[in-house]
Each structure stands twice: as structure tokens, then as C-alpha cells.
């Protein structure tokens, strides 16, 4: 029974919206940005340029126009706008799904978890309400632990 529960836990889609992209393009189904070392370097450069993952109804903001205009950034936009959870309740659901996992995350889920961590840290910086700030901080710490746990050697 416990083994069946563990197997089912592994099969739960951590980011179900990745399989139902709003834009309707089949090529954007289950999108992934990081496919090479160059993509990793590009993401780091985009983050350093001040990328902001906006709320639910706003686009991704990349202040550097040259970086923002790159064709490969389109998938990053889709991930940040359509796949990542933006509501605190959705991010906490993600944390509940991450907690019992005993296998490493897929590279797609790892990428999305790191981007969710980035979004959560950006939201935390904007919140003034102390109670909300504590909830977002707790979520940020849990996400950081999940990423750290996933990086540990098996």
C-alpha cells in the first residue's frame, strides 16, 4: 500500500498547466527553456538583467530589449506566464506535492521549481502586509529546501 502511494506520488503532475498551454501551439506543449549550457548561461544573463516574472495577467518583463527579443526567450515567456503557479495557494499546493517525493525531479520540473523560487522571491520583495510576507517567506524557504534536496547526490 505504501509503495503504491509512493508510485502515485511520483506520477502527480507538479505543473499540470504545462500540458494545457493557453496559446494553443502544439510546439509549446510542456515547454522547456533549458536545453543546453548556452541556455543556462542565457537564463543567468536574463536574471542578472533584472527579469521580473509578473503576476497572473501581466507579461514577463525583461528590461534588456536585446535579450527580450531573442527567439529562444519565447518559451521562457510561455513558462513564466502560463505554467508557473502565481497564487500563493497554488505554490503551496506545489510544495505539498514536492514534499513526499523520493526521486529527483525531472529536469523540466526542476527548471520550473527554480523559476517558481525566483517568482516567489520577487513577490516577497513587493509585499508589505506582515502576515502575507510571513506566508510567502515560508513558501520561499520550502522551495529553496526542495531545490537543495534535489541537488544532493543520490
From TrEMBL:
Pfam families: FAM180. InterPro entries: FAM180. Coiled coil: none annotated. Keywords: Signal. Residues 1-20 form the signal peptide. This is Protein FAM180A. It comes from Xenotaenia resolanae.
Amino acid at each position: 500500500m505504501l509503495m503504491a502511494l509512493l508510485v502515485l506520488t511520483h506520477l502527480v503532475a507538479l505543473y499540470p498547466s504545462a500540458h494545457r498551454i493557453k496559446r494553443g501551439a502544439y510546439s509549446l506543449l510542456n515547454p522547456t527553456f533549458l536545453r543546453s549550457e548556452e541556455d543556462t548561461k542565457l537564463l543567468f544573463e536574463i536574471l542578472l538583467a533584472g527579469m521580473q516574472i509578473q503576476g497572473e495577467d501581466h507579461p514577463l518583463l525583461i528590461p534588456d530589449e536585446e535579450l527580450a527579443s531573442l527567439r529562444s526567450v519565447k518559451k521562457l515567456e510561455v513558462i513564466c506566464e502560463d505554467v508557473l503557479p502565481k497564487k500563493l495557494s497554488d505554490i503551496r499546493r506545489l510544495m505539498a506535492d514536492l514534499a513526499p517525493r523520493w526521486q529527483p525531479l525531472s529536469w523540466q520540473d526542476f527548471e520550473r521549481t527554480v523559476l517558481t523560487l525566483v517568482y516567489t522571491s520577487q513577490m516577497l520583495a513587493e509585499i508589505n502586509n506582515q502576515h502575507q510576507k510571513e506566508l510567502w517567506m515560508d513558501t520561499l524557504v520550502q522551495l529553496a529546501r526542495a531545490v537543495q534536496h534535489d541537488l544532493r547526490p543520490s
